[in-house]
C-alpha cells in the first residue's frame, strides 16, 4: 500500500481545528489531529510546506519508521509545532493500519484492558454558589469525577471560569486578540481551600475532585497549596508550577502528599524524564495531538507504568474529535490508565467530525468501527473557515505578565 494524497483541512465550527487527511492507493483514508490552540496556522505551514511533500509514495504500514524519519530527519526536533504535525501523521497512519486490518485501533494496541473509560468533567463558577450549581450539573451529566475551578474575590477573569456562547463554545478562548486576565497569587492561595471546603461540605467525601493551577505558582507556593488541600483529599493538583523546571517538583513532593498531575504542554518523553524516574508526579497528562501521536505517547505510558504513574490524557475542547478518538483507543488499551478529561464538543463540531466514540454515564468507549472511528465531512468543514483566535494572557495587578 502507498500514500497517494495528503491534505491539510482547517475548519472553525466555533473554534479552529487542523486535520491531516491521508489517502492510500487502496482508497483507505486516515485522519490525524494537528490542532495547536492559538498557533494553528504555524502547524498548517509546517505540514503543508515540509511534511506533505515527503509523504506521497510512503508505505503507510511503516508507522515507527515514518515517525523516526520525520522526527530525526528534520534535525530540528521537539517543540509544539513540530510535534503536533508529527502527531497528525502518526494518528492518520494508525487509522489507516487499523482500517486495513478491519479493527478498531485499540485492538492493534493490545486490546481492551477495561470495559470503559472513566472521565472527569469541568465545573466552574464565578463564585462558590455558582460552582456548586456547576458541580451539580456535571453530576447530573453522569461524570464520576469533577474538576473544580472558581473565580477569586477581587479578580475579574480567572482560568477555567468561563462563559459560553449559545452553542456551548467557551467565549474566552475565541478572541481575535488575547483577552487579558488578572492574577493575585495570595488571593488565590487564600481562596482555594475555602472552595474545596464548600464542595466537600455539599457533595461529601467520596466525589473525586480535581483542580488545575495552570502553571501559576512558585514551587514553595505550590507546596503550601498541596499541604493546605490535603485534608480535602483532592484527586490531583494539576500543573501547579511551570514544570519545564522539572527539579521544582522535587521541592513540592517533599512537602505534600497531594497527588500531582503534569504534562499538557509537554511534547516529548524527555520533558518527563526526571518527573517519572524520580516519581515526582502521579499522572502524565499529555495529549496525543501535542506529543507526536499514539506511538510516542504509548512509550511514555509504558515508562510511567514502571513507576506506578498513571495516565490522564489531556482532553480539552481544543483537541478535535480526531485527537480525542485516538486518546480513547489508547485509554482502553493501556494497563496504567488513570482518568480521561472530557468536555463534549459542540453540535457544530460534531457535524463536521462524526465519531464512533460514545459518552455514557460519565464513561467513554471508542466504539468498534475500524480505525479510530472518525469521519470528516469536508463539505461541512468548508462552511466554517479559519478565524484568528488567541488564548488569554495573564497580568498581575501591577501589569506584569504572569503565566497563563
Ligand atoms: O489550549 C489550552 C487549553 O487546552 C488548556 O488551557 C486546557 O488546561 C487545560 C486543561 O486542563 O484542559
Ligand atoms: Mg490543564
Structure write-up:
With 404 residues, the protein is of the alpha/beta class. The chain folds into two domains: 3-104, 2-Layer Sandwich (Enolase-like, domain 1); 108-370, TIM Barrel (Alpha-Beta Barrel). 36% of the residues lie in helices and 18% in strands. It is built from 13 helices and 18 strands. The chain has helices at residues 40-55, 63-73, 80-101, 105-108, 128-141, 185-203, 219-229, 248-255, 273-277, 294-305, 321-333, 347-352, 378-382; strands at residues 3-11, 17-24, 29-33, 117-125, 146-150, 180-183, 209-212, 236-238, 260-262, 283-284, 310-311, 340-341, 353-355, 358-360, 363-365, 374-376, 393-396, 401-402. The strands form four sheets. Strands 4, 5, 7, 8, 9, 10, 11, 12, 14 and 15 form a ten-stranded mixed β-sheet that branches. Helix 10 (294-305) links the parallel strand 10 and strand 11 (310-311). The longest helix has 22 residues, at 80-101. Mean pLDDT is 96; it is low at 165-169. It binds 2-keto-3-deoxygluconate and magnesium ion. Magnesium ion binds next to loops.
Strand portion:
15-25%
> Oligomer, anyone?
single chain
* CATH homologous group name of the largest domain: Enolase-like C-terminal domain
Q: Ions, cofactors, ligands: which are bound?
A: 2-keto-3-deoxygluconate, magnesium ion
Q: Radius of gyration over alpha carbons? A: 20 Å
* Termini separation: 45 Å
CATH fold-level assignment of the largest domain: TIM Barrel
Count of helix runs: 13
The class by helix and strand makeup works out as alpha/beta
Could you describe the largest sheet, including whether it forms a barrel?
10 strands, mixed
Q: Give the number of DSSP strands.
A: 18
Overall structural domain count = 2
What integer is the average pLDDT? 96
Name of the CATH class of the largest domain: Alpha Beta
Query: Uncertain runs with pLDDT below 50, 5 residues or more?
Result: 165-169
Fraction of residues in helices?
Answer: 25-40%
Overall spatial form: globular
In the CATH hierarchy, what is the architecture of the largest domain at level 2?
A: Alpha-Beta Barrel
